[in-house]
Design a protein that fits this description.
- By secondary structure, the chain is an alpha+beta fold.
- Helices cover 16% and strands 39% of the residues.
- It is built from eleven helices and 34 strands.
- The radius of gyration is 25 Å and the shape is globular.
- The two termini are 46 Å apart.
- Pfam families: Peptidase_S15, PepX_C.
- InterPro entries: AB_hydrolase_fold, CocE/Ser_esterase, Galactose-bd-like_sf, Xaa-Pro-like_dom, Xaa-Pro_dipept_C, Xaa-Pro_dipeptidyl-ppase/CocE.
- Residues 291-547 form the Xaa-Pro dipeptidyl-peptidase C-terminal domain.
């Protein structure tokens, strides 16, 4: 990344700009703007998050917000109420209060003498979600948004459920938020009231994993905040960005296909990161691309964005499977329309003897009863921490699945879009699931997961109104696999792998299940192969990086252990410890997760997490330890949680959570 230190306009920064909400709660904002904005007003850009501007998102904030300010914007990074240095309490994600606060900040910014009255909203993940949600509320000053790694459907494509199945990330990210939100504000900013604010937060901290688990079907809770319920509510111009290594890859296509407002989409090879510093490479000049968007919609300049292709997608080349890639080979393709008339459907049927080809039939049923540890090479649901989180070699999981293989390809095959799997199958239990993986099999037998999908068979007809599976009854089902742009190389083979479980990505059915496959096919979105880039992005740029002293290096571990009849995935993400060279705050963070199961017993499934957070400056130090566990029996989920808070080595607060939640057709 090229570091830019000189900009068209000089910058002034306010590290703690207070924005008082109508109910008297003071939100803390970090604000960058041109030094002469009072004389020459500028548009504002808002990023509204719970992830702590003082120490949580500082790395990316330093690269991004001063860059926008230097090009003529007031860039505002707000700590959401109840987090970081802001007052108040947070009770859930995407609450009415969160949205109202964002609308009030937008109105506040638009009314300032340094603002020209136009505001944009930007964010990745949580900030990408609330950007879409706030845009649907149509605050007057909001003219454009950039949403990254987000979703338009909170039930189908967030960290809670997938295909109507419970994602283990529901507990994983709930545990992350328990840890994140347990930290105090910085006394250097809020003064002596920091301790009262901290204890108040701890006392009111919600136990989000259980809260989310109380909504196991697509009910009103999930519909609220899902902008796909009414795409027409969004009037602001939308630039939607995603990554093939991320969990939120499907949103870009749906937004571009359904929004009536001006909209463009970009999807690269990246994990859950901003694309100017994302991996796998190639990263792109995201900040320059964002400026083209802001300059047009907030300043009225002709930058050509309205003439950009509807979708710009990175078509990844076939590569051997690895749990981490620093770079993905491929090329940028561009589609003027989306859905694209240039993409055709090729249907490959499931055939006898594990064949996958056009026109074949399955002459005899195929049964599969996958061991409960099928899926151990599936990687993280949402790759984010830059460790070994991507799907590895699929051969071990393929061996636990029913596999259908195509012939070696005579020419490359470009898959662009979302494949659809259609199956005729039966299950021998009233609660059952199916997982389908599309794999690229190398000549040496190595199997790379191209894309995948899962479905709760109790939700085969409706995600809102589940119904029992009738044992032995043949069902006809169809569902989409995740969006992808991927070239299968000549000489490689396509494989469809079907399993009856997928641990530890999703929680297993309460009993072992045998699926009987009577037929099926996969519909592939195929684009004519070509050569060379159809679009070129500028090289990445950013402002001066965060200036820190490293006190402890980071490290990331992911390993599978097999002992005492159980299989356990252990994950340790030590994010290290750093000291801010400007204000002196030292921050340390360690996350630990384990997911274990008996391959023969789904009720042995168990997950637990333990997070440690430390904050230090001079003689002041605090630490929080947070813990969560989850298990289930045939009727209920059992969750526990615990917070411990320390000043120095003195325990000043402790709190336990324990909840039992009935299984609802899962």
């Amino acid at each position: 990344m090229k570091t830019i230190t000189e900009f068209p306009r000089d910058i002034v920064e306010f590290p703690d700009m207070g924005i008082v909400m109508p109910d008297g709660v003071r939100l803390s904002a970090r604000l960058w703007m041109p030094a002469d904005a009072d004389q020459d007003p500028v548009p504002a850009i808002l990023e509204h998050l719970p992830y702590r501007k003082r120490d949580g998102t500082t790395t990316r904030d330093c690269l991004t917000h001063p860059y926008f300010a230097g090009h003529g914007y007031a860039s505002i990074r707000v700590d959401m109420r109840g987090n970081g240095d802001s007052e108040g309490l947070m009770d859930d994600e995407y609450s009415d209060q969160e949205w109202q606060d964002a609308c009030d900040v937008i109105a506040w910014a638009a009314s300032q003498p340094w603002c020209n009255g136009k505001v944009g909203m930007m964010g990745i993940s949580w900030g990408g979600f609330n950007g879409l949600q706030v845009a649907a509320l149509q605050p007057k000053a909001l003219k454009a948004i950039i949403t990254l790694c987000s979703t338009d459907d909170r039930y189908a494509d967030d960290i809670h459920y997938k295909g109507g199945l419970l994602l283990n990330e529901n507990m994983g990210w709930g545990a992350t938020m328990l840890s994140y939100s347990s930290r105090p504000p910085d006394p250097a900013l809020v003064g002596e009231k920091w301790r009262d604010m901290w204890l108040d937060r701890l006392e009111h901290e919600p136990f989000l994993p259980a809260h989310w688990l109380n909504h196991q079907r697509r009910d009103a809770y999930w519909k609220r905040g899902s902008v796909n319920e009414d795409y027409s509510a969004i009037k602001a111009a939308v630039l939607a960005i995603g990554g093939w290594g991320d969990s939120y890859k499907n949103t870009v296509s749906r937004l571009v296909s359904n929004l009536k407002a001006p909209v463009k989409g970009i999807a690269g090879p990246w994990v859950h990161k901003y694309p100017h510093f994302a991996v796998p490479k190639p990263a792109i000049g995201f900040l320059q691309e964002a400026l083209r968007w802001w300059d047009h919609w907030l300043k009225g300049r002709e930058t050509g964005v309205e003439d950009d292709p509807a979708m710009r997608l990175y078509l990844m080349e076939s590569e051997p499977p690895r749990e981490w890639y620093l770079e993905r080979q491929g090329r940028w393709i561009a589609e003027r329309q989306w859905p694209s008339p240039e993409i055709a459907t090729r249907t490959l049927a499931l055939g006898t003897n594990g064949m996958l080809a056009e026109g074949v039939e399955l002459e005899a049923p195929v049964s599969i009863n996958s061991p409960q540890d099928c899926g151990m090479d599936g990687g993280e649901y949402c790759a984010i921490w830059l460790g070994p989180e991507l799907p590895g070699d699929q051969r071990a999981d393929d061996a636990k699945s029913a596999c259908f293989d195509g012939a070696a390809l005579e020419a490359p095959l470009d898959i662009v879009g979302s494949p659809v799997i259609r199956l005729k199958l039966a299950a021998d239990r009233r609660r059952a699931m199916v997982a389908v993986r599309l794999c690229d099999v190398q000549p040496d037998g190595a199997s790379t997961r191209v894309t995948y999908g899962v479905l709760n068979l109790c939700q085969r007809n409706s995600h809102e109104f589940p119904e029992d599976v009738v044992s032995g009854e043949t069902m006809e089902i169809a569902f989409k696999l995740d969006d992808i742009a991927y070239r299968v190389a000549a000489g490689n083979r396509l494989r469809v792998s079907i399993s009856s479980t997928y641990w530890p990505l999703v929680w297993p059915s309460p009993e072992e299940v045998t699926l009987t496959i009577h037929g099926g096919a996969i519909e592939l979105p195929v684009r004519a192969s070509g050569k060379g880039d159809e679009w070129t992005f500028q090289e990445p740029e950013g402002a001066t990086p965060w200036q820190i002293e490293t006190l402890r290096e980071d490290s990331h571990l992911r390993k599978v252990e097999r002992a005492d009849g159980k299989v356990t995935l252990r994950i340790v993400d030590d994010f290290g410890e750093t000291r801010d060279l400007d204000h002196g705050l030292a921050v340390g963070e360690v996350a630990r997760e384990s997911w274990s199961i008996d391959p023969a017993d789904p009720l042995a499934a168990h997950g637990e997490t333990h997070w440690t957070q430390t904050l230090k400056r001079d003689n002041w130090s605090v630490r929080t330890e947070t813990f969560t566990t989850m298990r289930s029996d045939g009727e209920n989920f059992h969750l526990t949680g615990r917070i411990e808070a320390y000043e120095g080595e003195i325990l000043v607060f402790e709190r336990n959570f324990s909840e039992i939640v009935a299984r609802d057709h899962i």
